[in-house]
Amino acid sequence: MASQGSWAQVRQQARAQETQTEALFHTYAQFASTTDIDPEPSDEEQRTEEQLNEILEKVPPSSLSPDPQPISPIHQTNTLPPRHQRSALLQHLARLLDSEPTPPSALKSTNLARHREILQQHRTELSRLKSSLATARDRANLLSNVRRDISAYRSAQNPNSQNPNSDPHASEAEYMLGERGRLDNSHSMMDSVLSQAYATNESFGLQRETLSSIQRRITGAAAQVPGINGLMQRIGSKKRRDGIILGGLIGVCCLLLLWFW
């Protein structure tokens, strides 16, 4: 009965930790969903993240307490001691399950596996929320840098203008018009380069057509004079015959030279 009571007590603490983690996730997710997020994390955000890191942190078995005490209300809201971290509670549940004299029931094994699965899901969710917060904060910093660039551009364009009540929308529109002008200049340069490339390609095409026309004319001229083809064939035949005769003569001379050596 003592083992049953200890199992139920530790499992109740594990369920309480899961409920507390869900509440912390709800608070932590609100920071990521804020439209105008601060460039730097607030104290409440840092405190919530620290609590989530501590409650989901992996604890080595040597740091486990043999009999974890019930979670006090103070521990539910402030920094948790190592014995109240969820990893430690699940390790203690596993030790209780292994120390039972009889084989553990399938229900207890299933409950322990489910607690471990929920813990892994919560760790994955914490990583996702951290990534979302970092992305939102980077976006906010980028927008802040753009606003500073707009202000610097405005100061450079109007160095004598120190009126703090000037319309920021007009300055932003002026900055955007300047950016659009630079983009138009870039597009004009690209159009000029493309035009030159098209002209070069067209010139290559004309040269290719000219060479093809010359080849066709030469072929047509050769076909119109019947004697040229026959003459060329006779010249080729004579060259082959002379080559055969010369090769045979050289071979006979070599044989005679070897015979009388």
UniProtKB/TrEMBL annotation:
Question: Which Gene Ontology terms cover its molecular function?
Answer: SNAP receptor activity
Where is it found, in Gene Ontology cellular component terms?
Answer: cis-Golgi network; Golgi medial cisterna; Golgi membrane; SNARE complex
Q: Which UniProt keywords apply?
A: Coiled coil, Golgi apparatus, Membrane, Protein transport, Transmembrane, Transmembrane helix, Transport
Q: Which Pfam families match?
A: V-SNARE_C (PF12352)
Q: Where would one find coiled-coil regions in this protein?
A: 112-139
TM ranges: 243-260
UniProt lists compositionally biased (Low complexity) regions at 8-23, 157-166
Where does it localize?
A: Golgi apparatus membrane
- Tagged with keyword Oxidoreductase: no
Membrane topology for this entry? Single-pass type IV membrane protein
The ranges of region (Disordered) come to: 1-81, 152-171
GO term, biological process aspect, one = endoplasmic reticulum to Golgi vesicle-mediated transport
| Homology family | Belongs to the GOSR1 family.
Task: Name the PANTHER family on file.
Answer: GOLGI SNAP RECEPTOR COMPLEX MEMBER 1, GOS-28 SNARE- RELATED
- Name this protein carries in UniProt: Protein transport protein gos1
Q: What is the lineage of its organism?
A: Eukaryota, Fungi, Dikarya, Ascomycota, Pezizomycotina
